[in-house]
Design goal:
five-stranded parallel beta sheet
Length: 160
Amino acid sequence: MTHSFHNEVSDWRIAIFPGSFDPFTVGHMSILKRGLELFDKVIVAIGYNEHKYSADDMQSRKALVEAAIGALERVEVMAYDGLTVDAAKRCGARFILRGIRNVADFEYERNMADINRQISGIETVLLYSLPELSMISSSMVRELKRYGYDTSGYEAAGGE
């Protein structure tokens, strides 16, 4: 007798991977791919954050992320505003996937995870960045671009 791993899509372990992704870096791609080893589906959720400057509008960022992800299976891309937990509920995600690079990220993410769990019951899964990627951040890439430096080694390219 063969068993299907999932009886229904509602049984899937779905995670939302939120961020501004301006730009979507090789660090983001690493967290996404590693998240796919833990979850049945990962939704890359591009959030609007009024406190962060973005060089591209939301739809442009969404198109760039979709191009970077390419044909990765079990991944969707969406744009949202408002609270991440509300976006997670709308798309059926029971988990929030986040990457952390350093102690400062850990402190921030732990506080967010605690609040998100309290208000929604949604668990946050933190993955440490790979050591060789820990210095890469979207803001660092934007700054290098602004001054004319080549950032191709830091940005995720189509279907990496």
